[in-house]
Each structure stands twice: as C-alpha cells, then as structure tokens.
C-alpha cells in the first residue's frame, strides 16, 4: 500500500522547522550556509562517537564480568584440586614408612637364630599402581588447566584494558576511526574466540577432576563409587544436553509461510536460552558438516523433510546468537500474504505478545496506564482488544475503537459479566497455534474489508478454501460464529453495490452458524445466537447511514431475518436477561417497513412474569456500567457514540 504524499503546507512547515533548528545551534550570524551546517555535523559526529563508545563499553563490560567470574572459579577449583594432589602424588613413589617396616622385618628375622638367613626374600622394586597413575594424571591435568585458564584470564583483562582505553583524539571522526580500527583488529585476531574458549578450559578442568574422583572411589568401595557415579553422570549429561539443545532446537525460517499467509504452518517460535560459547561451537560445527551434504540431492531432500530448521540454517546461517533472535522476531514484521490483496498486512506477533504481557503485568499500576494507552494506540483497536486485552468476544460482535481499548484497559478484569461466550483458547493465546491462527484470519478479513473495500475478496461458498478456513476455525476455537460481525455491518450498508453484494456472500456462513450443530453445547450455542441477534438488531436499527442495509432489500436476507425471529420465539431465546425485547421488536418492525414484509410472518414474542419482565426489557442495559464508563461503540457513519454491552 502506497502512502499518500504529505500536503504541501505540511512539507513547508517541516522545512521551516528544520532551518530554525539548524540556526538555533549556531553562534552569531553565519557567514554562509556551510558555516550554519558545520555545528550540526559536529554535534552529530560527537553523538555518534558517544553511541559507539557506549556500545563498546557495554561489550567490554560483559567480557570483564565473565573474566572476573572465571578467575574466581579458577582460583576456587585450583585450591580444591591442590588439596587432593598433595596427597595423591605420594602414591607415585615408595612410602619411606614401608621401607622402614621391611628393614625391621629383616632385622627381626636375622636375630631369630632358628631362621635361616638364606631364606630371607628381597622386596621387589617399587612400582606405583596403574589406578594411582591415572588418578594423578586426571588431577594434575585439572590443576594445570584451571591455572592456565586463570593465566590467560589475566592476559585477556590486560588486552581488554588496552583495547578500550580512552585515547585522546583531535576530532570525533578520528575517534570513530580509532574505535573501528581496534574493533576490526579485535575480530581479525580472533580475540572474541579466545575469550570464549577460556570457560571451556575451566570446564575441562572440572571434568578431569570428577573423573579422578570416580576412579579413586572405584578402587576403594563399590557403593560410594556407584552413588557418586550417578550424580556425576547426571551433571555431565545435563551439561552436554544444554550444550547441544540450542542446535537441536534452532527455530525454523517461517518467512515463506508468512508471505503465503499459511496459518497452518505458523507458530510462536521459542529460542533455546542455553546459549554458551561451547553451544555456539556445536552450532557452527553442525552447520559446517551439514552444508556440504546439501550438494547431494538425496541428502538434501532428507534433511529438508526431517530437519527443516537445520536445512534453513545450512542455507543461510547466522553470525551470532543475537542475530538469530532478531531474525525470529523480524520474520513477522514482513508483509503477510505477499503478492495478494493483503500484501501490506504485518502480523508483528512478538510485539503483540510483548504488549499482552506488559498489560497483564502492569494494568493494575495507575502510573503505567497512560503509557500503556499510548503504546496500544500504535496498533489497530481491534487487534488491541483481542490479541492484547483478550476480549475476543467483544471484537467478534463490535467494531472496536480507541475508547473501547481505553475503557477495557482501565477496568478490572473481573468487574464485568460477559454477554457472549469466549473462544476456547489456551492462554497466553498468542503462544499457541489456535490463537495465532485466529488472529491471522481476523486480521486478514478486517484488512481486506476495511482497507481493500472487500472488492478483491470472494467469500463465495463455492470456494472450498474459504469454507475450510471457517470450518477449521469453528472446530479449533469452539464457536459457531467466527466471522467478525463488523465486516458485514460495514459491507451491507456500503455505498458501492459491488461491496454490498460481496457482503451478502457471508450470509450463508451466518445461516450455517445459526443452525443446530450435532455435538455442540445447546446453551453455549444459544448464547452465541443471542449475541448475534443483538448485533443484527443494532445493524438494522442504525438509521444514521444514508444507505439501507442490503440485508433488508435482498430476498434471501429478508427470509433470513424471518427465520431468526421465528427461532427466537420457538427456541425461547428471549428467556434471558441479555435479550433486549424492545430493540429486537424495533428491528423486525423496520424489516417489515423496508422489505414490505407481512406482519403475519413475525410471531409476537411471548410475555414473561412481571419480575422477569424488568430485566427482559432492560436486556444488557440492566448490567451496563454507569454512563461514561461503558463501551462506546462508534458507528462508522456517525460521530456520536452509543453504548453497547455486547461482548462485555
């Protein structure tokens, strides 16, 4: 969708404001336009240099914090391992006390006159046990690796101190150049990879220490060995699992499905948070091994079918974890339904989920309400009411406005009794497939209706795809009425006859939704029907538009109104305080006047007892909030809002 150019006077005001802003930064009258621009350029360079320096400081701060933690752990591990090696190294040489005992035995035998001296056996040369050699190898390797990691940790801190040193420069441009030189050299000499490898050295040291402990216990007693073996294996197993999980659970590229509007393959993707240098190494190795395999047709098809995410990343890998996270978020910033009539529709799934979480967390804080209102103004009111505030029941029957969003945001979530059933969706809604599919379908219908004029959309039931979408929604969300009523409310009274005829194609879906459905809860279905009757009566009675509803002119529409009224009486739908008798009677009266329908086709609604009659006549008005606090339903053809409690 091409946005219109700004008005000429608006452009002139912008240029004037820009000139005034530039001149306000200069001291004294400038000699020429270049001098007037120089202070602005200078300030921009200084601001850019500060932002670059801030970015580098943040990166350096993270590296320094990691190195400080590494040095502490390396010192602790070295102290522990040293205590064990002080004892274990003695196992590699002969114990002097054993030699003393041997000599005493020999002397004792020599003093015994009854003992033949020639029978005295000589002790063989000392040889350490194989297990002692292994244990000492493991423990000394652990000590060496931990001390080595500490040594290089100190070296890296020195490198970082010099890398991030604040060197005086003559101009901000020179400072930017110096920062860039150091940054490129930092990456060219793989200092980042070196820093990432230091924790791996410390982890290897800890692993060798555990192996030595288990080897020692194995030679002493089987019970403590078995217990410690299980605990160590659990720890090591968890370590390796968390290392390979980020590679196994890499998110799939959903861009093709988003551009095609394929809701069946869309999902809220999660990124594995177990990110570490060793996990990144596993990811890079996996990509390097997989990429050559894609040159073989059979392997390419196998990986694409059974490991699509790995196939996507082998085709186009990411430079770091942060870029991977951003790619997942930005997928939904692309145009959905690319190449179709809704090519300008953007889902922005993760932004909506962030808004939903923020509203749930902070809506009880009065100081945050104005900020939340400002944020929700950046998105469609219908999307804010449904996807963010969770009022799907409201958006099914009303065309939401900013005032509706404001009221819903300020009210208590439990302060209002719902008038229509909510969709059966797991919460949080956007995290699950059914909720995402419902949001995608409703956004698409609204976009094509209100932004494209409904001319390009064919709702004919002869198209099996349209019917399949509606049927699938009915099953997944547990409702019979799934098409937002605001679509037909707008289309049936549109000035364009083509749009009105297109809108009448939707009548068949409402006819099917109205009819009894096997296996569906009757009371829940009746609640939906009452909501539909409320919306239909409001549509018929709205006399502020210049066009008469196509529903009252079309023969099929007239028959539908008669059928609805007949079923209201036959099924006792009027036996509810939510049913507004006077509003519906006014609607059928207008239908008779416009369509020239005989009154004999509309049976009178039976009266109820006097006690029940009060709430019957009031309908939703009996449970409506006080004036000024209700939902202001804003009709498209009128600026004056009226209160509607439907869906709230």
From TrEMBL:
Keywords: Membrane, Transmembrane, Transmembrane helix. Residues 9-19 have a biased composition (Basic and acidic residues). It holds the Pfam family DUF6535. The chain crosses the membrane at residues 70-92, 138-156, 189-211, 223-250. Residues 1-37 are annotated as: Disordered. Residues 48-218 form the DUF6535 domain. This is DUF6535 domain-containing protein.
